[in-house]
Specification:
heterodimer; A: about 290 residues; mainly alpha; two-stranded antiparallel ribbon; 13 helices; about 75% helix; B: about 280 residues; 11 helices; transmembrane (chain A); membrane (chain A); transmembrane helix (chain A); MetI-like (chain A); transport (chain A)
Chain lengths: ~290, ~280
């Protein structure tokens, strides 16, 4: 009786989970993989083949954008970590009482606005007719309007801005759990700031660092609005090509292949990151 | 660098400058967006031409249409609200079930299923949208071509958008609710059972009230995430455009202070929502 009741509750809870994961995640991704190996011969005949993947490697525009997106995402993630770490350290270890909570809340402010609004804010600041340009002219530091938008630096500023929150929160959480005696012991044993940071703080904070980096990297790699709206003519982003294939060209087969490639790239880099740092997905995300 | 280790004056000063610069960097884009919602000029840029509420209330007669008279934006707002409602409902319900499944029950293959549950977090939002489009919309196309059956639910539109967003918001809701369930003292539930409550009664009178703050928190987060989502949504949307997509196409045509007005409206609304949840949270505990 007892065991049949627990079997029943197991199935009652397992069913919604399986429906969700199978119908919304597994089947759609398998279908995407299948479609990426289809080649359309005429409007109603299909064949199997590697045509879409060959296109990717033979068109330099595709794979150049692919590499560029990957490299810039890694760089953005690294930059976000460097910028966020001192802030997280201050909130977790140096601030006290009320100011601690307030600073933490202040880090959440950008989350009140969507990515579109945040990007729009940066456009108002950086563009030729924008606020910075007007200030520079008012101060007499520039003779005419200055265009600061539509280049890679602007894109990275926007991307780092989008990612900061997701870096600060896990860092603060892990750093708060650190025992200060460890740091003191490090200094007592004659370590300098850098040695203590490298030998004690960073290893301790590793789960938070990896978790923040994974989220920021995924967000950056998959972002669309920021690179499109803030980037120049030459700063294409890989997601943009997926959108183009699906929405403008209706070439689902090619779009699916590009999607699979992006998924492979992101999984590979996350996997390498976990391997190198010796963390597990369960530990850093769950 | 901890409180008990002495620091030099210079270091402290530099640290302070860095902190101030950081928070200016965080606040500046949102601040200018908010301020230009009230500038009496047709283009959101300096110089400041005076204060106006036109970008909210103008009815179009003077060449300006404010947010509250802009039918496209208002209907997009309504579409987004409906989507967010359904996404919140589905993902929080699924999140509760998943949390109990992974925190309370033991079964074979649990580790593997837990990893599968985390999977949507490491899939870019665009790919989630694309895969659902390819699977469901492709299925609708095939059915229509082969048997003449029209499955319009699976054509790009509100249903697909809800499905796409539920995919990853469920994972986040599960994590939020599960982390609270982990801290629950199971003796409370056992006490209820010893006192004669059935498992169902014990769940609704003891466990669920304990989970309530996290359920509300997860709901607020789900609502905001859904409302703000662009990457997954844009692949799946049909003729009824949600707000972010409508704003994006407006922005491509050129920026007007109406966009600032919408942005400020959204910021205030999400801040109020966040505040309401944290307030309710602190009252509970």
């Amino acid at each position: 009786m007892r065991s049949s009741a627990s079997r029943l509750s197991l199935w009652l809870l397992l069913t919604p989970f399986l429906l969700w994961i199978v119908l919304l995640v597994l089947l759609p991704h398998l279908q995407m993989l299948r479609v990426s190996f289809q080649v359309r011969e005429s409007w109603d005949t299909l064949d199997w083949g590697f045509q879409q993947y060959q296109n990717f490697f033979s068109e330099s525009y595709y794979w150049r954008t692919f590499v560029r997106t990957g490299v810039m995402s890694l760089f953005t993630t690294f930059l976000t970590l460097i910028i966020a770490f001192p802030i997280a350290w201050y909130i977790a270890r140096l601030a006290r009482g009320r100011s601690k909570g307030l600073l933490f809340l202040a880090c959440l402010i950008p989350f009140w606005a969507s990515e579109l609004v945040r990007t729009y804010g940066w456009m108002i600041l950086l563009r030729e007719s924008g606020v910075f340009s007007a200030w520079l002219q008012a101060l007499g530091w520039a003779d005419g309007p200055v265009e600061m938008l539509y280049n890679d630096v602007a894109v990275i500023i926007g991307l780092v801005y989008n990612g900061l929150l997701f870096m600060v929160v896990p860092l603060v959480t892990t750093l708060e759990g650190m025992d200060e005696n460890l740091v003191e012991a490090g200094y007592d044993l004659g370590g300098g700031h850098f040695t203590v940071l490298r030998e004690i703080v960073v290893p301790w904070a590793m789960p938070g660092i990896v978790s923040g980096c994974i989220v920021v990297f995924m967000l950056t790699l998959g972002s669309y609005l920021t690179p499109i709206l803030m980037g120049g003519k030459d700063s294409a982003w890989f997601t943009q090509q997926i959108f183009t294939q699906f929405i403008t060209r209706f070439n689902w087969e090619q779009g699916a292949a590009l999607g699979v490639l992006l998924l492979v790239l992101s999984s590979l880099i996350v996997w390498i990151g976990l391997r190198v740092t010796g963390q597990s997905l369960r530990k850093v995300m769950g | 660098m901890i409180r008990s280790v002495p620091r030099s004056r210079l270091f402290d000063a530099l640290y302070l400058v860095y902190l101030v610069a950081f928070f200016v960097y965080l606040a500046l884009p949102l601040l200018v967006t908010a301020v230009f919602a009230f500038n009496d000029a047709p283009f959101p840029s300096l110089p400041w031409k005076g204060f106006t509420l036109d970008w909210y209330f103008a009815d179009g007669s003077g060449g300006r249409t404010g947010l509250f008279h802009d039918d496209t934006l208002l209907s997009a707002l309504w579409v987004s609200a409906q989507i967010a409602f359904w996404v919140t409902l589905c993902s929080v319900a699924l999140g509760c079930a998943n949390a109990v499944l992974f925190e309370r029950l033991e079964f074979r293959g649990k580790e593997l299923l837990y990893l599968l549950m985390l999977l949507p977090l490491v899939i870019p939002g665009v790919i989630l949208g694309v895969s659902i489009l390819v699977f469901y919309s492709g299925m609708a196309n095939d059915l229509s071509r082969s048997w003449g059956i029209e499955l319009d639910v699976f054509r790009p539109g509100m249903t697909l958008v809800v499905m796409g967003q539920v995919t990853f918001i469920t994972t986040l809701a599960t994590l939020v609710i599960a982390s609270r369930l982990r801290k629950f003292d199971r003796q409370l539930e056992e006490a209820a059972l010893n006192l004669g409550a059935t498992p169902v009664v014990a769940w609704f009178t003891v466990t669920l009230p304990w989970l309530m703050p996290s359920i509300l928190g997860a709901a607020a987060m789900a609502f905001l995430m859904s409302f703000e989502n662009f990457n997954t949504t844009v692949m799946l949307t049909g003729s009824d455009t949600p707000l972010t997509v409508a704003l994006f196409s407006r922005l491509r045509e050129g920026s007007t202070p109406v966009l600032n007005a919408v942005a400020l409206f959204l910021m205030v609304a999400s801040a109020l929502l966040a505040l309401a949840v944290t307030r309710g949270d602190s009252e509970k505990s």
